[in-house]
Every structure is written in C-alpha cells, then in structure tokens.
Amino acid sequence: MSLILFNKPFQVLCQFSAQDGRATLADFVKIPNVYPAGRLDADSEGLLLLTDDGKLQHDIAHPDHKQPKTYLVQVEGLPDAASLARLRAPLNLGDFTTKPCKAVQIAEPDWLWPRNPPIRSRAEAPTSWLAITLQEGKNRQVRRMTAAVGLPTLRLVRSAIGALSLASHPLMPGEWQRVEPSELGNGLGK
Asked: Is it the case that residue 135 has pLDDT exceeding 90?
C-alpha cells in the first residue's frame, strides 16, 4: 500500500488525465495506479494525499471518518470576534449548513512558500490569515464560508489532513514523498 503526500501547486488540476493543455497530477507524480484521496480546486494549493489502496482512499476522503482538514486562508479584510464566531458556528450557505469548525486568526506561516503568480495586493485593502479546520469538505466550502462573513478568500492552502501536515513534512509546490499510512492517525491506514 502506498500513501503519497503531494504539495499541489496553484492551477494544477486534481486528476491524472490530460485536459486542454492544463497541468495535472501526471505532470508531477510518475507513480502508476495512485489516485487522489479527495480533491483541491485548481485555484487552491497544498496538501493532497494519493494512494493505490481504494479502501484507504475512501476512508481519507469520507467525512464519516472525521479526518480533520486544516486550511490556511489569506482573506481580504480584518476578522473581528463576530466574524470568527460565525465561521466556527454552523453557517447557512444556502444549499447546505456547515458543521461547526475551528477558525482562528494567525500570522502568515513562516514556512509558507510564495505563490506563483503572486496574490494581487491593494494598499487600501488589508489582508489577514486564518486557519480553518473542517471535519467536512464540500465544494468550495472554505471560500464560500469566508465570503459569507465578509472576508473574501485571496489564497487557500490546505496544510493538513489528519495528523499529516506540510509543516512537519516540508514540501515545495510540485514535490511529493511517500509516508506510512499509519501516520494519518485516527486508526486509518492499518
């Protein structure tokens, strides 16, 4: 059984099949028969797990197994206590209501790589960083959550899945490494 940590670069599609000349996982990971356990949008970066084990793939991605996923989010604006409380509580996004989560304001992590291309900066619009940890992961959920509380997402980096993180396994965008499935924690990968 293989488990691969991959730092997905910005604008890379979370698939191996070619599509309209856009970069895909196949441009970076040359291991046969591994597939992503979950997804990241093309405009999101960071930790993606790949495996050749279908059960492990399902267990990592499925919300019933409660693998927390942490996202570092650069937002436009400065969060206040009320906006952070709204992010933490169940938040009605129209088509679904989020589960409670962890959301805190943080300093920009010193290990974080610069994005290419860089985030546009506007002198009149301050930015800040949040760490949001979810037990679920609906399509574009974090972006929709921050927008709902008036803090549009500028940059989104998944930094951890379960016990595996880019802070403890430093990889630059496009790099990958094999890890033991038991490192996921929560009884997975055994």
From this structure: no
How many domains does the chain divide into? 2
Q: Which residues contact 21 (CB under 8 A, 6 or more apart)?
A: none
Q: Which amino acid is at 154?
A: L
Ramachandran quadrant class, 77 (left: phi over 0; alpha: psi -120 to 50; beta: rest): left
CA distance to 61, 136, 144, 159, per residue, from 64 (Å)? 9, 9, 22, 21
Please check whether residues 110 and 47 belong to one and the same domain: no
> Residue 189 to residues 25, 133, 142, 177: CA-CA distances in angstroms?
23, 21, 27, 16
pLDDT tens for 79-125 read: 999 999 999 999 999 999 999 999 999 999 998 999 888 887 776 78
Instruction: Assign residue 98 the CATH number of its domain.
Output: 3.30.70.1560
pTM of the model: 0.92
* Residue ranges making up the domain that contains 7: 1-66+163-190
Active site includes 41? Answer: yes
pLDDT at 175 over 90: yes
Catalytic residue among 20, 27, 41, 53: 41
* 101 neighbors 46 (Cβ within 8 angstroms): no
Would you state the pLDDT for residue 176? Answer: 97
